[in-house]
Amino acid sequence: MKREISIFNIQYSIIKCLAAAWILSGLAAWAADEAVSPTFALGEVLVVGAEDAGGDGTAAAVTGAQADRAGRRSVAEAAALAPGVIYTRIGGRNEAAAYVRGFDTRQVPLFIDGIPVYVPYDGNVDMGRFDAFGLGELSIAKGYSPAIYGPNTLGGAINVVSLRPTQPEEVVARAGVFSGEGVEGALRAGLLRPVGYAQAGVSYRERDHFRTSDDFAPTATEDGGRRDNSDSRDLQVSAKVAWTPGAEGDEFAVGFVRQDSEKGVPVYAGTDTNTLPRYWRYAEWVKNSLYAIGHVQLGQTGYLKPRFYYDTYENTLEAYDDATYATQTKKSSFTSVYDDYAFGGSVEGGLRAGERHDLRAAVHYKQDVHREHNVGGPTSTFKDETVALGAEDRIALAGKLSLALGAEAAARNSLEADDANAGEAFADNDNAAFNPQAGLFYAVTGGTFRATVARKSRFPTLKDRYSYRLGKALANPDLNPETALHYEVGYRGRIADHLAGHLSGFYSRLDDTIQQVDRVAQDDEGAWLYQLRNVGESESAGAEAGLAWTVVPDLTTGFDYLYLHRRNLENPEIKLTDSPEHVLKAYVEWKAASRLTLVPSVEYNSSRYSSSVGTQADGFWLANLDVQVVLPRGFDLAAGLRNVFDEDYELGEGYPEEGRNFYVSVQYRF
Description:
Blueprint: H1 7-23, E1 59-63, H2 64-69, H3 75-79, E2 85-90, E3 95-100, E4 110-112, E5 115-117, E6 135-142, E7 156-162, E8 169-178, E9 182-193, E10 196-207, E11 232-243, E12 251-265, E13 279-298, E14 302-320, E15 334-353, E16 357-374, E17 380-398, E18 401-419, E19 424-425, E20 430-444, E21 447-458, H4 462-466, E22 473-474, E23 482-496, E24 499-522, E25 528-552, E26 555-568, E27 582-593, E28 596-605, E29 608-609, E30 616-617, E31 620-630, E32 635-642, E33 650-652, E34 655-656, E35 661-669
Parallel strand pairs: 4-7, 22-25
Antiparallel strand pairs: 1-6, 2-3, 4-5, 6-7, 8-9, 8-35, 9-10, 10-11, 11-12, 12-13, 13-14, 14-15, 15-16, 16-17, 17-18, 18-19, 18-20, 20-21, 21-23, 23-24, 24-25, 25-26, 26-27, 27-28, 28-31, 29-30, 31-32, 32-35, 33-34
């Protein structure tokens, strides 16, 4: 069932990107001489009063260079390098995700250059589909986060800031192979001139399969070795053009990103008799994004920053009868088609008022449209609109002490919702939320102490409110927002010469959590149905600690540790999933020779619940080795061995992960 992509089509896409970059070279005839940051500054969302994403310790950051050194190819893998972030996989959909202190991708949304990225229907996004090749920096806010992000940042926010050209003309190309008959290739070309810049890129990754560990015990649905239905293909094309007029700080950019993917969903291979195997394939997973971002300097300290975007999302899910993936005759088989789009934007503004106040505010609007049908059936349409206003003030109190106050007011309204079961529309419904927050910061030489409190919320998604879950549930359009109250104290910065670190303690209380309530009604055949309701109350408490020590100029070592205890207060028998209690990440970065760098690393995850009924995935240790070699004439070689000891482990019970595997790639920079 795998769709063929010809070499001609790949080459044609590359040629189009290069041709666009060449045509746009007419921006100007002069070369830029001054040093330029490689990150796309328009895409940053900073804490008010801070010059960088982690300026006061409230956000963690992962650079593209760090992701490259660790051999992380997707945004999900790169984000998992940050403290407090857990890499996981939703096995039944084969989606990779980065959970922040146990909060999932609906509660900690993904942004790319400050623009929200998620599937309009369920609020999720497969972070494994997005290539890290164009990654400048990842900023991960936890709990307390900038109020100007907009709605639905219940547990924080992840913002991917893309790259921009830094040289008058530059080309970066990468090619490689990896386990499972995998191949990858990427190309990025850019032009930089005094009045603007242009950049275009393409990346491609494809693999036929991955292999399970040799220690995997065969089951009725998986015999080990090559994991059945584990192929994938990802093609990403991007381009951006920017104008930087003479005024200091002014910049305007338009861009386009297309993510075109196809993937199998490996079948459940566990021992839980209540989990039935599903034979699914995503024959199409296409996301197009068109955006415009600007920054206008107003006087000495003021600015205006508009963002506007239009996204489309097309998804075709094929459910088959059995492992042959050839027939669709059973009641459980179908071909589901999503044809979604979203549009919206925000306008952010700020200024420094006197000597003590840094003010900032943003207004947001977004409309989500979901259209779905099974092949041969009618189309249902759902529409929501969301508006929000956020404002913040950073107040210099005395000396090195400052206070940040902020609040967000948001509202969601249903515009259209077809009830396919009743043959009529659902009744209109709406939600509102008000989220205040405050942070106290004390700056010392090389670091910052902080104490923060924040109330955050998440509106129920279209799927939360309207889905009948393949006939197993009742819809509930009257769901209320989930809310969370976060408390944290911590420090991030220098501890001693050549030693940096961070330490924090946090507590979060969640109310009105949307959870499944069983046996609420019976269908016409007498089968019990469940419903999603605001019945959940839970708490999360824990600590993060980490050190980075430069032992000698050519040797750095470090670790990050997360302790996370989550408890369901309302229904203890309903388990909170995908969040190990202990996570340890440790590494050594050793420049063994002038052109050779070795990066061995280990990671430990304790056991985690995979389902709300208590099914568990065991804890595990992983060891990795990454190697970078600087070659002459602008070439670099990267290679790595992942899961060195061939650990048989799972992120979700019944979905074994890849055994020992490797990658090798060559990169050229001009």
